[in-house]
Amino acid sequence: ASMRALTEDADRAYELDRQHVFHSWSAQELINPLVITRAEGSYVWDGQGRKLLDFTSQLVYTNLGHGHPRIVEAIQEQAAALCTVAPQYANGTRSEAARLIASHTPGDLNRVFFTNGGADANEHAIRMARLHTGKHKVLSTYRSYHGGTQLAINVTGDPRRWPNDTGSTGNVHFFGPFLYRSPFHSTTEQEERERALDHLEQVIALEGPSTIAAVILESIPGTAGIMIPPPGYLRGVRELCDKHGIVFIADEVMSGFGRSGEWFAIEHAGVVPDLLTFAKGVNSGYVPLGGVAISDAIFQSFAKRPYPGGLTYSGHPLACAAAVASIEVMEAERIVEHSAALGEEVFGPSLRSLAERHQWIGEVRGVGAFWAIELVADRETREPLAPYGGSSPEMGAVIAATMANGVLPFANFNRIHAVPPINISAEEAGEGIRALDAALGEARAAVAS
Ligand code: PLP
């Protein structure tokens, strides 16, 4: 069958999906997946031929939009030249992808171990940290997501961990900073930073620094709510790690590759982690790819003894070709600068003006093309419009109204995230925000009636 014909036949796609496809994170018979038959730039088309602005970048990964011709051509050319080669060989495309990635990661993160995605990148980063330090425990935050494999889901701080937190040892969770819902009763960013660092210092002291291999953090927590850490927080974490011989792992799977208006979100803090994990935006997810960028010190740990880990598809040429093309496009088209400008000139001002007009908006926060709208039932109590880990008729109405206004929304509990491709034009971004504006009004009216 022609792939194009398979992709465009919406009825058959839906019918066979329901018969044979088992979906992530879902009660299989309670879902009704939207068929996507076509995509271009910042838009997708559903099975009814309806055009939707993709304000999700799928799962926040098509950073250069759909069908970018340079990336598609690179994959086609690589497929014709050398479609695959095992990881033990050297391959020019993989070498170039590693060089380009290392040229943009901060500090001395000069080596790249390639994985298939973000979860396995975090698994390997933790394995490296344990072997490098000879210690075992891993500290991570509540309100985080690090992936769906056994260790990564145990490190995660999200309700998806709850049914899975049976099979892994040494995971300890602590509270990261989140001023709007401060676990420390802070009223200012400075208080939140100081108290969050005091809290982490106490967790390290009470767990025992001699038992802790790593602290893993999303430089800006993504799915959990795009909480920008207060100034000085990540530097404080870096200092605590240095003081206690703990490896600092920055998870940049969602926040990396321009999403935050820097190549990597940790650059906003001027801090260099020991390991940095990436996936998603490295090649806009056109072919699965993730990896770990490794400091010189940790590299030295494996210079003369073997690293006990690997994957059949580590550094797959098709995925690496897509990464080379993506990074070249980002450099040539100044996509990181564009992302920063979108945040300052479009998302920041227009979402704040939305917050003035809609009672349901408790807070908007973000940077670059990475924004969260926190919806509340009551602005005084900050009661979320859906409970943590759950949904509500109000959130259901917001999502439905957003789609009825032509926009595919990213929703998580009581939040809507505005996370479009980072090469979206200011006009398209404005179109999406106007749809959210209309949707919030319509949803409130619908729920009230
Ligand atoms: N880390 C973060 C911050 C993520 O957002 C994700 C995915 O959403 C992951 C890790 C897991 O990546 P993957 O789904 O590619 O395994």
TrEMBL record:
This is Aspartate aminotransferase family protein. PROSITE patterns: AA_TRANSFER_CLASS_3. Keywords: Aminotransferase, Pyridoxal phosphate, Transferase. CDD domains: OAT_like. GO terms for cellular component: cytosol. It holds the Pfam family Aminotran_3. Gene3D superfamilies: Aspartate Aminotransferase, domain 1, Type I PLP-dependent aspartate aminotransferase-like (Major domain). NCBIfam families: PRK06062.1. One of its GO terms (molecular function) is pyridoxal phosphate binding. Belongs to the class-III pyridoxal-phosphate-dependent aminotransferase family. It comes from Acrocarpospora pleiomorpha. InterPro entries: Aminotrans_3 (IPR005814), Aminotrans_3_PPA_site (IPR049704), PyrdxlP-dep_Trfase (IPR015424), PyrdxlP-dep_Trfase_major (IPR015421), PyrdxlP-dep_Trfase_small (IPR015422). Its cofactor is pyridoxal 5'-phosphate. Transmembrane segments: none annotated.
